[in-house]
Every structure is written in C-alpha cells, then in structure tokens.
Design a protein that fits this description.
This protein is mainly alpha-helical. About 50% of the residues lie in helices and about 5% in strands. It has one domain (about 20-125). The chain contains 3 helices and 2 strands; from the N terminus they run H-E-E-H-H. It binds zinc ion (ZN). InterPro entries: DUF2515.
C-alpha cells in the first residue's frame, strides 16, 4: 500500500509539485483576469453614474468608415449605458463585438458607404 508522502516546503519542488509551472501560470492568469474584471467594472460603473474619477471613459468602438486622424466626427458604437454592464464578461464582450461586426457588414454592403470604408482603411494603412 502506497503511503501518502508528505510534501516539502518548496512550492517549486519538481518531485512534490510536478505541475508547479502550469499552476503558477494559471494563478498568474487568474490575477490578471481578476484585475481586468475590476478595472472594466469600475470604469463602466463610474462612467455610467458620472462618478468623477478623472479617468473613467465610455467604452466604445470607432467604425473605420469614419475614422479620422484626430477621431473627430467618427461614427461610434457604444457598449452600454448600464452601470453594471461588464466588458470583462465574455458573453457581453462577444455581443458587443458581434454588434460591431454586423454594423461593419452593413457598411460594406451599402452602395455608398462601402467606398468610405475602403478610403478610410487605405488612409489608415498609409499614414503620412
Ligand atoms: Zn519536494
């Protein structure tokens, strides 16, 4: 009968913890994800409720057909007005991306706006 050997104090011991690298990597990623969630939620909450943090910004995507060097007059897709909306949530993030993709698809199928898209992408790709 194999007895359960006691593990040593070294958390990186390859004998006691053969998966220590993977586990450290997973823990590091978890911290990053938690930080991302906190930042995204804090920003959205402060922005939607007008809490004067000095740094909260609306989450939005600028559509390429109206991109300008300064960002002026750009057509923008808004994420959400809800204080509890969470861009760190994969479902909400994907819904936002899908809305942007649908809008982009619409522009590409518009007989006039598709040329705006083409021109804007050209300008973005060839900065002067
Ligand atoms: Zn050990």
């Amino acid at each position: 009968m194999a007895s359960q050997r006691e593990k040593c104090d070294n958390p990186r011991c390859p004998v006691c913890y053969p998966n220590w690298k993977e586990e450290e990597e997973a823990a590091r990623r978890k911290v990053e994800e938690d930080t991302f969630v906190t930042l995204m939620r804090g920003n959205q909450f402060a922005w939607a409720l007008n809490i004067p943090t000095g740094s909260a910004r609306e989450i939005q995507l600028t559509l390429a057909n109206k991109c300008t060097v300064t960002g002026a007059n750009a057509e923008i897709l808004h994420f959400s007005q809800e204080p509890l909306a969470n861009l760190a949530d994969p479902g909400q993030r994907m819904a936002f991306v899908m809305r942007a993709a649908a809008r982009f698809d619409e522009l590409l199928h518009n007989p006039l706006q598709k040329y705006d898209v083409e021109n804007s992408l050209y300008v973005l790709a060839h900065p002067r």
